Amino acid sequence: MEGIIYFEDGTLYRGKGFGRGGTAVGEMVFNTAITGYQEILTDPSYAGQIITMTYPLIGNYGVNMSESESDSIYARGMVVRSISSHPSNYKSESTLAEMMQKLGIPGVSDVDTRSITRKIRSEGALKGVISTEITDVQGLEQLLKATQLKEDWMKVVGVRKAKHLHGEGCRVALLDLGVKGNMVRELQKRECDIMMFPYGTSLEVIEAYQPHGLLVSNGPGNPETAVEGIELIRGLMEKLPIFGICMGHQLLAHAVGGSTYKMKYGHRGGNHGVYDSQLDRAYITSQNHGFAVDAASVEAKGMVITHTNLNDHTVEGMEHKELPIFSVQFHPEGAPGPTDTEYLFDRFVTLMKERNQCL
Q1: Looking at residue 239, what is its pLDDT?
Q2: Which of the residues 192, 246, 319, 320 is marked catalytic?
Q3: Number of folded domains in the chain?
Q4: Are 332 and 341 in contact (CB under 8 A)?
Q5: Residue 200 contacts by C-beta under 8 Å, 6 or more apart in sequence?
Q6: Tens digit of pLDDT for each residue in 13-48?
Q7: Is residue 288 marked as binding?
Q8: Which residues bind L-glutamine (predicted)?
Q9: What is the DSSP string of 148-187?
Q10: Which stretches in the chain have pLDDT values below 70?
Q11: Nearest to 300 by CA among 314, 328, 320, 329
Q12: Is 342 a catalytic residue?
């Protein structure tokens, strides 16, 4: 079947459809990872987005549901240069196209993904539509104009009600804005008792759990729209150790009185260099975000910048001068990508133990 990509600036690409036939409108972004397409598709942080993979061959090792970061696909669609229909991997359960067919997500292949990536880098993240149904440009243009992109996805992609994961160690309240499965697994490795709370949970409900610390997860959307989450963090800042990751990092910036801004095309991939000024060491990290923290705005509120992006010098990590709160913009849990910064989970657990004497 034919697959079509149409950008809001009028640019049209024609290729082949794969996955589930259909039409999807979303923010067009690109990801530079070579592997990890399954983890990327199932990461709730991609809700509302259509992902172009810059690596040309996708699907060559198939999919295995144990590698998924959630139970569903949250991205609106995927664009690739070449999709493999004959994967080679002893763990493969099906092809990527079959997975997308089953979970209802359209894809387009056989297009110039280098051209699409250059367009996004040049013009910024654009609204676009991919379709295997609508073939005329006028119909695609009308659909784009009639569709408003959602900015507050973090309010709906997490758990619907509190979920308890038993552990013998420190009690962690996890504010689920679209948490990745591996983030939870990293806490479980450290024997944490975890209570996952949905967006909008009140301060009183979380305090009733008597947590030793708060982890604010990754998630999709514009952090400025997460007002309730920001207020919750503000209410706990002087009571608990807090660790923010990705969206959690951005909400923490707002909670202390700082600000964030939308990046031109964001950071998405498994190969982003970050410098840790405290350890005088550089890391290659996994990233997925379209917003960044304004450094001056948080430094004026008592935060110290601890990590910096080696490409564009944006803020990648910070901590408070006095309070036991810190955050990073990248993903220390990887999946996909390097896991060299998993030590940050150890740091969080250490803070909880020092402050609360939990096991």
Answers
A1: 96
A2: 246
A3: 2
A4: yes
A5: 155, 228
A6: 999 999 999 999 999 999 999 999 999 999 999 999
A7: yes
A8: 45, 219, 221, 247, 250, 288, 290-291
A9: PPPS-GGGTSS-SS-EEE--SS-EEEEEESS--HHHHHHH
A10: none
A11: 320
A12: no
Hey, which residues does 216 pair with through a beta bridge? 175, 244
One domain for residues 327 and 298: yes
CB atoms within 10 A of CB 76: 23
291 labelled binding-site residue? yes
User: Which tokens go with 19?
Assistant: 């996955």
- What's the burial of 263, exposed, middle or buried (CB within 10 Å: 0-12/13-18/19+)? middle
- The reply to whether 160 and 305 lie within a common domain is yes
- Can you give the CATH number for the domain in which 191 is found? 3.40.50.880
Q: Which helix (H) or strand (E) holds 103?
A: helix 96-103
Per annotation, catalytic residue among 27, 289, 331, 358? 331
DSSP 147: P
Say if residue 92 is in the same domain as residue 207. Answer: no
pLDDT of residue 265: 95
**Given this model, what pLDDT does residue 358 score?**
86
In single-letter form, the type of residue at position 33 comes to A
290 annotated ligand binder: yes
Q: Which of 140, 117, 123, 151 is nearest to 25 (CA)?
A: 140
Query: Known catalytic residue: 331?
Result: yes
Confidence (pLDDT) at 359: 75
- Tell me, yes or no, whether 191 and 236 share the same domain: yes
Choosing from 146, 180, 198, the residue where a domain stops is 146
Q: Do 200 and 298 lie in a common domain?
A: yes
Catalytic residue flag (residue 358): no
| 34: exposed, middle or buried (Cβ count in 10 Å: 0-12, 13-18, 19+) | middle
What residues make up the domain containing 306? Answer: 153-356
CATH number where 129 lies: 3.50.30.20
CA 195 → CA 65, 173, 182, 191, distances in Å?
A: 24, 5, 15, 13
Q: Is 247 known to sit in a ligand binding site?
A: yes
pTM over 0.90: yes
